[in-house]
Each structure stands twice: as C-alpha cells, then as structure tokens.
C-alpha cells in the first residue's frame, strides 16, 4: 500500500462528526459585491500565509477560451464547413485541453454562444414569444448539409441551449407554453442527430451530443443508458463523459442508486488500464454533488483509492484543485435529497480527506474551479459573470484553506 493510500485509510476512520458549520459560515459570509479595501487586504494577508499563488488565468482557462473563440470566429465568418472539419478531426483524435475538456465540444459551444441570447432576454422581459430568427438561420444551414455531423452537432446543441433557456428563464417554467417549447427544441435536436451513428463514425463527441439530447419524459431508460455506455466505450479517457454518465444514472434521470454503483464498478473494469480504479470516483463525483442519496451506496474505501489513482495519473493543478474544492467546499453541506446516517458519515469523512489533497497535491489556487464547487442553497447568485466568479472562487479557496490550515496547527 502506498503512503498516500495509507493516509487515506487513516483519514476515513478518524472522523465522523459534523465539523463543517464553521466552513459553511465562512462561505455564506462571502459577499458577491465588489470587495472593500479591508477585504482585499485581509485576503492578501491570508494568501501570503498560505504560500499558494492564485492563478488568475490558468492554462486550462486559456485553452478553453482559445477554442471557444475559434468556434465563434469561424461561425461569424460563415466558415461552417471549416469548423465542422475541425470538430470532426479533434473528435477523431480524442483531443482535449490540459484539464480534460474535449476540444470538439468547446468548438461547438463557441459556435453557438450568440444565438439564444435574444430568447433569454425576451423571457427575462416576460415575453413568451421570443425572436428565433438566429436559430432558424442555423437550422437552415443544417438542412442544407444533411450528411455533416459536425454541423448537426452545432445546431442540435443550439436547440438544447434554447430548451434550457426556456426551463431556467421562462416567467412560468411549468406553464404549457414553456413545456411545449422545451419539448420542441429537444425533439429537433434529436432529429438532427438521429441519422448519424457514433460507433460507425468513431465519434465520441457525437455520442455525447446524443446523450445531451436525451429527455427523461420521452425515452425508455434502458436505451438512454446504452447511449452512455456507447459514449464511454468510444472515449474512456475523457473524465467528463464518466461524470455525466454517473449523474444520469441517478433516480431522477435514467437509473437508480443501485445502477449508479453497478456501473461505477463496471467502469473501473473497463478503464483499469487508463485510470486504475479512478473511474469509480469520476462516475460518482457529479452524482454526489446532485443527490445526497448517492452517498448511501458509495464504497468510501474504493472512492478514496480512486481519487489517489486519478491524482497519480493527472499531475496537473486543474485536477488537484478540482478534487480539493470538491472535498473541501462542495461537501460542506448535503446535496438535495434524503441523506441517511451512513451517507452523512461518508460525506463528512470524505470532507476531512480534503486535508491530504491540499497538503500533498495543491501548489496553486484556480479560482474558477472553487467557484464551480460551491454547493447550492448558500444564497450565492447562480448567474455571475466571469470576473465576479473569479473573485468569489478566490475568496472561497483562500478562506477555506486558511481555516483548515489554522485548524491543523491548532
């Protein structure tokens, strides 16, 4: 057993009571308004004490921004075919950023960033008959290129964006007009992608798009699970696909807690040469964030071992920040759903294990990762701009890390 695994074994048995109220209070006290001079000075002092640099623009962020801009630029130039070729080439290469984001997905995201804004603005203004001219123009491009899966992906994702805008910004999300709009956009997205076979085309990004277009109300759960199995088999190295699979195995989507654990174990066997036991943690990660009940079936020993296997294979600081923030911040309170006694104990033990990650893996702070790790329900607005999110993530990381450092010294 490695020293790291030995430390994790010690940590998991050492803690079992709720020591998180101070951490929750720290996070809840953070203001999203512009910082005062006093707060800025205080954070500077805490950062100096930590000895960890705050990286305002990480390598992962720069790579993401470049490919997002590339997709946006080519679409604005009308270079649909050129962009589609790049999407398909990166998909075939299984190319990803240094932090593990599929490049083909970033290109599609950049290509569609402008289109749903008028729909969102109309809905925010209480207008449930938004202008969809931009979406119609995109649809016309797809109709003119029926054999191009890169273009189909871009337009399908744009329809999915529109569906999510209706869900989150409609004045009455549950009203018939909103539900019909969501159904309409999901249906069109699936129709655009249906002619293309991800296995035959060797196209994991296409499989991911088909998974994103699934709806719990309209498709049998078994066929939905098979789509995710196809995705993971095509690209087991992309952690985001494993994470998405786990989240969609929750009861409110296409599975159950038992299916979640079963497929997490299967994923370990299918990806052992790549991840060791790491796939177990990837499959569970977002499920634990979204549903407290997932802790009830979690094998804590295996999860800890899986985290170590991931960190041994991914030495980048994006991954170190990801797991440090997940354990230290996301787990300060339970996710929605019913948390049983054993599940609560596992969450608290896993939260305490953050100390090992911080002490042995963390060499710099990536603010946006910490902002993304914040749990829901702490009164923090969910629609902050990038700079506000950076400030929020930086303050969260610095205060939580400083608190844990003082606790370990005390």
Summarize the structure.
With 410 residues, this protein is mostly helical.
Overall description:
- This protein has 410 residues and is an all-alpha fold.
- It contains 22 helices and no strands.
- It is globular and about 65 Å long.
- The model is unreliable at 14-18 (pLDDT under 50).
Largest sheet: none
Measured by DSSP, the beta-strand proportion falls in under 5%
Tell how many strands the DSSP assignment holds: 0
Residue-averaged pLDDT, rounded?
A: 90
**How far apart are the first and last residues' alpha carbons, in Å?**
30 Å
Proportion of residues in helical segments: 55-70%
Structural class: mainly alpha
List the total number of helices.
22
Uncertain stretches of 5 or more adjacent residues: 14-18
N to C succession of SSEs? HHHHHHHHHHHHHHHHHHHHHH
State Rg. 22 Å
Please state the overall shape, judged from the principal axes of the Cα atoms: globular
Layout: helices, strands, pairs:
Blueprint: H1 3-14, H2 21-28, H3 37-50, H4 59-76, H5 80-93, H6 103-112, H7 117-124, H8 133-144, H9 149-169, H10 176-193, H11 198-201, H12 204-212, H13 221-234, H14 239-248, H15 257-275, H16 278-290, H17 300-313, H18 317-328, H19 341-352, H20 354-361, H21 367-373, H22 386-409
Helix pairs in contact: 1-17, 1-19, 3-22, 4-6, 5-6, 6-9, 7-9, 8-9, 9-10, 12-13, 13-14, 14-16, 15-16, 16-17, 18-20, 21-22
Characteristic terms for this protein:
410 residues, 0% strand, 22 helices, single chain, mainly alpha
């Amino acid at each position: 057993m490695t020293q790291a695994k030995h430390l994790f074994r010690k940590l998991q048995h050492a803690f079992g009571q709720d020591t998180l109220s101070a951490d929750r209070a720290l996070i809840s006290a953070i203001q999203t308004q512009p910082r005062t001079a006093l707060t800025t000075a205080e954070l500077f002092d805490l950062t100096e004490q930590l000895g960890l640099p705050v990286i305002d623009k990480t390598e992962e962020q720069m790579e993401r921004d470049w490919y997002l801009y590339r997709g946006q630029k080519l679409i604005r130039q009308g270079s649909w075919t050129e962009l589609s070729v790049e999407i398909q080439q990166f998909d075939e290469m299984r190319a990803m950023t240094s932090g593990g984001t599929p490049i083909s997905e970033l290109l599609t995201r950049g290509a569609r960033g402008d289109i749903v804004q008028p729909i969102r603005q109309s809905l925010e203004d209480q207008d449930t008959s938004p202008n969809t001219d931009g979406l119609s123009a995109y649809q016309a491009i797809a109709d003119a290129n029926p054999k191009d899966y890169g273009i189909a992906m871009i337009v399908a994702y744009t329809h999915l964006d529109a569906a999510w805008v209706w869900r989150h910004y409609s004045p009455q999300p549950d009203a018939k007009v909103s539900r019909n709009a969501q159904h309409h956009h999901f249906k069109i997205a699936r129709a655009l992608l249906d002619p293309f076979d991800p296995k035959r085309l060797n196209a994991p990004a296409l499989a991911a798009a088909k998974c994103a277009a699934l709806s719990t109300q309209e498709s049998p759960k078994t066929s939905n699970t098979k789509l995710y199995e196809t995705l993971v088999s095509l690209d087991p190295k992309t952690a985001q696909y494993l994470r998405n699979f786990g989240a969609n195995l929750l009861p409110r989507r296409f599975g159950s807690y038992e299916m979640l654990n079963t497929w997490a174990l299967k994923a370990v066997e299918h990806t052992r040469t790549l991840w060791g036991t790491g796939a177990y943690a990837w499959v569970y990660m977002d499920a634990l964030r979204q549903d407290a009940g997932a802790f009830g079936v979690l094998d804590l020993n295996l999860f800890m071992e899986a985290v170590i296997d991931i960190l041994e294979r991914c030495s980048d600081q994006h991954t170190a920040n990801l797991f440090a923030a997940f354990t230290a911040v996301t787990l300060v309170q339970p996710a929605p759903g019913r948390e049983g006694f054993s599940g609560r104990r596992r969450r608290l033990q896993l939260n305490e294990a953050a100390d090992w990650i911080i002490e042995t893996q963390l060499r710099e702070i990536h603010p946006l990762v910490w902002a993304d790790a914040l749990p829901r329900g702490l009164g923090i607005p969910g629609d902050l701009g990038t700079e506000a999110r950076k400030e929020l993530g930086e303050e969260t990381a610095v205060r939580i890390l400083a608190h844990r450092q003082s606790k370990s010294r005390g």
